[in-house]
Design goal:
The protein is α+β, with helices and mostly antiparallel strands. It has one domain: Beta-Lactamase. Helix content is 35%, strand content 31%. The chain is built from 4 helices and 5 strands, in the order H-E-E-H-H-E-E-E-H. The protein has helices at residues 8-18, 51-68, 72-75, 119-133, and strands at 24-31, 36-41, 81-84, 88-100, 103-114. The protein has a 5-stranded antiparallel beta sheet with strand order 2-1-5-4-3, sandwiched between helices. The longest helix is centred in the middle third of the chain and has 18 residues, at 51-68.
Length: 139
């Protein structure tokens, strides 16, 4: 597992998430502007994308999530989005921190899974409960 140097709490949450399920290949945290804050890769994994490509992917993932938020009033809040590619499955999971009634900070988890993973089940039954129990790590 490797991480870029960033705040310890983001590194900790990425390392915890990467160990939640053996089919998780990659975890990254981006801020609401798409800036990649930290990444963690499964041990011995050779990533498909370079660091620069991953940074660009983070920006694009936040833009896609922001366009989905246009429909939140009618459809509800985005819980996660999943894209299936030939070689892997990617997911974006928004994490909203309410620091007080007027202030909230949004981060996004970027994940990739092995192509044969049940990503939706892992996200809904393992990842989201883990995030809910550990929201303080995003502060």
């Amino acid at each position: 597992m490797t991480s870029h140097s960033t705040p310890t709490h983001f590194t900790q949450i990425c390392n915890e998430i990467i160990n939640l399920n053996k089919s998780i290949r990659f975890v990254g945290v981006v801020n609401n502007m798409g800036k990649l804050l930290v990444t963690s890769y499964r041990e011995n994994l050779i990533p498909f994308m370079t660091k620069e490509e991953t940074e660009n992917y983070g920006i694009q993932a936040v833009l896609r999530a922001a366009t989905r938020e246009d429909f939140a009033k009618k459809l509800g809040n985005l819980k996660h989005s999943i894209g299936t590619y030939d070689r892997l499955i990617c997911a974006t999971v928004p994490v909203l921190m309410k620091e007080n009634p007027q202030t909230q900070t949004k981060y996004y988890l970027l994940l990739s899974f092995d192509i044969d993973a049940c990503a939706k089940d892992i996200i809904e039954n393992v990842l989201l409960p883990h995030i809910d129990k550990n929201l303080e790590l995003f502060k």
